[in-house]
Amino acid sequence: MRQMALVGFLQAQNCTQLASSWRHPESRNDSMSKGYYQRIAQVLEEGKFDLGFFDDRLAMPDMYGGDHAHTVQHGIRCVKMDPLTVLTVMGMATERLGLGATCSTTYFNPFDLARRFQTLDLMTDGRAAWNVVTSFNDGEAMNMGHDRHVAHDLRYDMADEFLEIVLGHWDAWEDGAIVQDKTTGLFAHPEKVHRLDYKGKFFKSRGPFTVPRSAQGHPVVIQAGASGRGTRFAARWAELVFTAYHDLESGKKSYAALKEAIAQKGRDPSKVKLTNLVWTVAAETKSEAEDKWALADSLVNETDALSLLAEVMNYDLSKKGLDDPFTDAELAELSGGQGHIDVVVRVTGRKNPTVRDFMEVTRRGHARDPFIGGPKEIADRMEQWFVEGACDGFVISATHVPGTYEEFVKFVVPELQRRGLFRKEYTGSTLREHLGLDRPENGAWRRYAG
Ligand SMILES: Cc1cc2nc3c(=O)[nH]c(=O)nc-3n(C[C@H](O)[C@H](O)[C@H](O)COP(=O)(O)O)c2cc1C
Prior knowledge:
Elements: E1 5-10, H1 34-46, E2 51-54, H2 69-74, H3 83-91, E3 98-104, H4 110-123, E4 128-133, H5 138-143, H6 152-170, E5 178-181, E6 186-188, E7 198-199, E8 204-205, E9 220-223, H7 228-237, E10 240-243, H8 248-264, E11 273-282, H9 286-298, H10 302-313, H11 328-333, H12 338-348, H13 355-362, E12 371-373, H14 375-387, E13 393-397, H15 403-418, H16 431-435
Parallel strand pairs: 1-2, 1-13, 2-3, 3-4, 4-9, 9-10, 10-11, 11-12, 11-13
Antiparallel strand pairs: 5-6, 7-8
Helix pairs in contact: 1-3, 3-4, 4-6, 6-7, 7-8, 12-13, 14-15
Bound molecules: flavin mononucleotide.
């Protein structure tokens, strides 16, 4: 029986994806300590999750009003630690849980990134994953030594080259290259370690790469592109896709379209898992869960919403009234996530949406359309999305941590297991085994180029 994948959507910061979460009475206030992350990892592993993954941003959300004072004052994701370091700490406290981190192809160097992730994969016995992003805004550009963020489609062209280098390096050492024979003095077969010699339009890297393959070959590649260009990129490269479908019906269509795009590339669509973003508020009974939700929702501050929206749109929304439509010229100028603009235009049916339209459709800063209830209500909704063909699993966001995950593992996971929709035990040890993905042969990705 087909079973769903479960991913914990984590942040190495002072709050969850919900900026107001740090004000939640049950939130721990030691988010800059190892115990906090190790506890979250252990809860996810107890619930047999496939993966916990960190999102990332290379700047505070200071686009709104062009200043960081409100961000720091309200604690709007103003702390952002290095996710790879925190993952290592989590890996030391777990045995099976997959460990993913987000890293930008626009602002990092491919050789360096390939080496850090491949090292993490070795140090965690094949549990690492990389969420490939191209970044959102000028703040990130400026922190990383540039004046402005790179234009949307151009960043994906750069990302294609970046991936060719990373995957190329990850393949440098053939399986079986290392002999380590003390009697003959042969450490490794030189003919089984290859130099990449890559020269592209945007990047170059020579090699040979310095980190051999791991138990799962190399880290799992995750991607979450939502625009036309972004989904083409995901169809080429992703092994796990994060989606944020707006509703079940449009989700089914987008799911089918992406699987088709993957097949068009000559890849096996069943070997690329699509997991949809969802918020869950679980309790023993529906009415208890509703009370919990009322509390979490009451903590949201409108500044959180505007600031987080400005951040992903790469636009200072304080310059506009809430009901002013974006002009064509302004829309063309937005260089943040094109996927956000596309969904707002589609859902509102307006070619020139207002700031309020963006707030209402995206619900940035809020938990959008959460699954609230006891075990039955939440499992019913998850089952519907999964069985009706809108996803292969879920990326679960938290109104507070570790509470959201503790409650989900206590109330929902046993119900999903009872229905046969989710594993009772891990059957493998690597992340690829959890996700049902094959260990990649050297160079397999080259077949799907272009
Ligand atoms: C679950 C999920 C997690 C994401 N995490 C990040 C992240 O950590 N950093 C980031 O810059 N973008 C993140 N994104 C945004 C995507 O990478 C992508 O930019 C966005 O969906 C817009 O698509 P587009 O780039 O094709 O316009 C995430 C998206 C989803 C659905």
